[in-house]
Write the structure tokens for this entry.
Amino acid sequence: MEKQVIKKISREFKGIVTSAAMTKTITVKVDSIKKHTKYPKSFTVSRKYHVHDEQQVAKVGDKVRFVECRPLSATKRWRLVEVLKVNG
């Protein structure tokens, strides 16, 4: 009997670190471009996420990639994967 491999679909985002003041937690702002349904106008929608940073490598202004994980606290459900671009 063969074992079936079930691939879990994980959400992944890229954004810019806006705050690194908390211990092992960073705040990341993710921008997405939406289009108005009635009028042909594009606009930017921003959303902030609390991301777990175990090694505390991300600094303010860095571009990072993070994925969804199990709930780590009341507001953290995201885990840092890598720092894409270092600010500075």
